[in-house]
Design goal:
With 366 residues, the chain is α/β, with parallel strands linked by helices. It has two domains: 201 residues, no CATH class; 165 residues, no CATH class. It contains 14 helices and seven strands. The strands form two sheets. It has a four-stranded parallel β-sheet. The chain starts with a strand and ends in an 8-residue tail after the last helix.
Length: 366
């Protein structure tokens, strides 16, 4: 089973990312401060119950918090850059704040961070939180996610660009500051990068997310309601399983190429463009394969019989055969029509990776 731990937030805010999670992962865990935390308040209770089959809360264990504590202590073994600290008299306008639930980390972790000016305790709305500079908060949650994921789960995030921007900014500002109170700024950045390496999105997971996003754009994800994707994922038929496998295999083929060591960003962009073009072509070929099937059905003799039944039926009734035979004439014709149509459509679907998403578009004649 493919399991992933989502971070940095307690709930997935980006609906397209939620669609990505539904399509690809068997189970996505979000780091919850306590059992029963409502991470899906914007959805109806019925939709939230359906999503709960795939989105599972994970309350960090003491062992996971201890592991995160050790990593965070490595992170702050050098004095933090002044621009990452929160001064006692600072106003909200002086820094971008990130709120974190107190229960996600150990009390001693918060105390160490507080002592170094990295976080401030805040109580509001009946909740006890800690606030930090946004970039530091994102980093702490990435470390916690890695601790919760262990070696068997993946870590996924919808803030990839924020993490990348932070590391670039940290590198440039640290270099500009020169020496710190405890060592060269270059060592400070290398230490931060070393600790972040495990929590930063893995290459394959990041590329997988990008490719799934491309397929959602190709199929016009905005027109795919969450409820339709839930219906797609809860379809337990053999066909649904085969379509999902074909879809995943098409993505993994490119994930392998995109995660190859030494691949330049230029080559990576070319591969992503190639993937997009192939998915567009695949969807178009699917349309072309389905049209003849629909046309054949429309022009079939069974349809003609079904349409004729209301006319022929009264004549049969008048001759004494009875009303049931007249109805059976239409039902029999349409029954064979349904079997032939389903068979042809299934054969076409199995040839196209994009058929998995197309199946979520709802009832269409082709």
């Amino acid at each position: 089973m493919l399991r992933a731990v989502y971070y940095p937030h307690t709930a997935i805010h980006d609906e397209n990312f939620l669609k990505h999670a539904l399509l690809y992962w068997d189970e996505v865990q979000f780091i919850s401060p306590w059992q029963g935390f409502n991470a899906l308040p914007r959805y109806s209770s019925e939709t939230a119950r359906a999503l709960a089959k795939f989105l599972k809360p994970h309350v960090p264990t003491k062992a996971e918090k201890e592991k995160a504590h050790d990593e965070i202590m490595k992170l702050i073994r050098y004095d933090l850059p002044s621009w990452l600290k929160i001064e006692r008299n600072s106003s909200d306008d002086d820094y971008d704040t990130y709120q974190m639930f107190r229960g996600k980390l150990l009390p001693e972790t918060w105390q160490e961070l507080k002592t170094r000016g990295a976080v401030q305790f805040r109580s509001h709305g009946g909740l006890d939180d800690y606030a930090s500079h946004t970039y530091l908060g994102l980093t702490l949650m990435a470390i916690l996610a890695r601790s919760c994921a262990g070696t068997l789960k993946h870590t996924i995030t919808d803030r990839e660009h924020a993490y990348g921007s932070f590391l670039r900014l940290f590198e440039s500002l640290s270099a500009a500051q020169g020496e710190t109170s405890e060592g060269p700024a270059d060592d400070l950045f290398k230490n931060w990068l070393e600790v972040m390496a495990g929590g930063h999105p893995e290459g394959k997971d990041t590329e997988r997310e990008r490719l799934v996003a491309i397929t959602l754009e190709v199929i016009d994800a905005e027109s795919l309601p969450i409820d339709d994707l839930i219906r797609l994922r809860t379809d337990k038929t053999k066909l649904a399983s085969l379509l999902r496998r074909n879809y995943a295999e098409a993505i993994e083929k490119y994930v392998s190429q995109l995660s190859a060591p030494g691949l330049s960003e230029t080559d990576a962009n070319s591969l992503r463009t190639d993937f997009r073009e192939k998915m567009v072509e695949d969807l178009e070929r699917l349309y072309q394969d389905l049209k003849p099937i629909a046309k054949k059905i429309v022009l079939s003799k069974e349809v003609a019989v079904a349409f004729a039944a209301p006319i022929v039926g009264p004549a049969i009734i008048a001759s004494g055969v009875g009303v049931l035979l007249g109805g059976a004439l239409a039902l029999g014709a349409l029954g064979k029509l349904k079997v032939d149509y389903a068979s042809g459509r299934e054969a076409a679907f199995l040839k196209h990776p994009m058929a998995f998403l197309y199946a979520a578009k709802g009832v269409r004649f082709y």
